[in-house]
From TrEMBL:
Protein name as annotated: Pyruvate dehydrogenase E1 component subunit beta
Enzymatic class: oxidoreductase
Enzyme Commission no: 1.2.4.1
Biological role stated in the UniProt entry: The pyruvate dehydrogenase complex catalyzes the overall conversion of pyruvate to acetyl-CoA and CO2.
Keywords: Oxidoreductase, Pyruvate, Thiamine pyrophosphate
GO biological process: pyruvate decarboxylation to acetyl-CoA
Cofactor(s) named in the record: thiamine diphosphate
Domain of life: Eukaryota
Length: 133
């Protein structure tokens, strides 16, 4: 159901669909700075393989979710809720961070669209925020 694409020890990145590619790019950028990311591709969201995410969070102690949708009611929000309500919560060294699309209607212009959905730079920023670096 779920695929762990890159193994790391500092932070868990969880995404589904297109943002998985952005997470892999961000992991490459961050690896040059000494940050090892574990990237989890949620290939299905129902059923949700929360056990894989929990195991990764227990290992890395940090969680960043990435999705292109709005912040409210999204997959990232559900993953964060399940981690906060489950046994992996006790392993978190910092609050989970969500990277989402902007809370605006999707713009038509390409430049505005790029600024309203998560980009690699946004993921890198979120990871550094979660790790306090």
């Amino acid at each position: 159901l779920t695929l762990v694409s890159v193994l790391g020890t500092h932070v868990t990145l969880v995404a589904h669909s297109r943002p998985v590619g952005h997470c892999l790019e961000a992991a490459t950028v961050l690896s040059k700075e000494g940050v090892e990311c574990e990237v989890i591709n949620m290939r299905t969201i129902r059923p949700m393989d929360i056990e894989t995410v929990e195991a990764s969070v227990v290992k890395t102690n940090h969680l960043v979710t990435v999705e292109g949708g709005w912040p409210q009611f999204g997959v990232g929000a559900e993953i964060c809720a399940r981690i906060m309500e489950g046994p992996a919560f006790n392993y978190l060294d910092a609050p989970a961070v969500r990277v989402t699309g902007a809370d605006v209607p999707m713009p038509y212009a390409k430049i505005l669209e790029d600024n309203s959905i998560p980009q690699v730079k946004d993921i890198v920023f979120a990871v550094k925020k979660a790790l306090n670096i």
